């Protein structure tokens, strides 16, 4: 499921990750560096399971935890209407 940022969302990268602003609602959403990397990979069209596998390998964490974390980020971004399916 390819994703893109909602048209009303702008993002700015920071030293600690990124901040997304929904211009329509005025609400901010902050991501840490790992969350920002997950968002970038999602926007590049990578599958959540592939992103989780990369995180599991890179950070030496159980694959179940990485899968849960990637799904949680995706669910939160979707619930906040920050990303939409292409």
Helices and strands, with pairings:
Layout: E1 3-5, E2 9-14, E3 17-22, E4 27-32, H1 33-43, H2 48-59, H3 63-79, E5 83-85
Antiparallel strand pairs: 1-5, 2-3, 3-4
Helix pairs in contact: 2-3
In short:
The chain has 86 residues and is of the alpha+beta class.
Structure description:
This protein is α+β, with helices and mostly antiparallel strands and 86 residues long. It is 47% helix and 28% strand. The protein has 3 helices and 5 strands; from the N terminus they run ββββαααβ. Strands 2-3-4 form a 3-stranded antiparallel β-sheet. A two-stranded antiparallel ribbon has the order 1-5.
Number of helices: 3
User: For the terminal residues, how far apart are their CA atoms?
Assistant: 7 Å
Helix content: 40-55%
Structural class: alpha+beta
The pLDDT mean sits at 95
Tell me which oligomeric state these chains represent.
single chain
The strand count comes to 5
Unreliable residue stretches: none
Largest sheet: 3 strands, antiparallel
The rounded Rg comes to 13 Å
Strand order of the largest sheet: 2-3-4
Taken from the alpha-carbon principal axes, the silhouette is: globular
Strand content bin? 25-35%
What is the element string, with H for helices and E for strands?
Answer: EEEEHHHE
């Amino acid at each position: 499921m390819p994703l893109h940022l909602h048209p009303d969302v702008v993002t700015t990268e920071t030293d600690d990750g990124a901040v997304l602003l929904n211009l329509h609602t005025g609400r901010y959403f902050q991501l840490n560096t790992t969350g920002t990397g997950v968002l970038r990979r999602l926007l590049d069209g990578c599958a959540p399971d592939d992103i989780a596998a990369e995180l599991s390998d890179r950070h030496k964490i159980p694959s179940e935890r990485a899968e849960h974390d990637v799904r949680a980020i995706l669910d939160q971004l979707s619930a906040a209407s920050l990303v939409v399916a292409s």
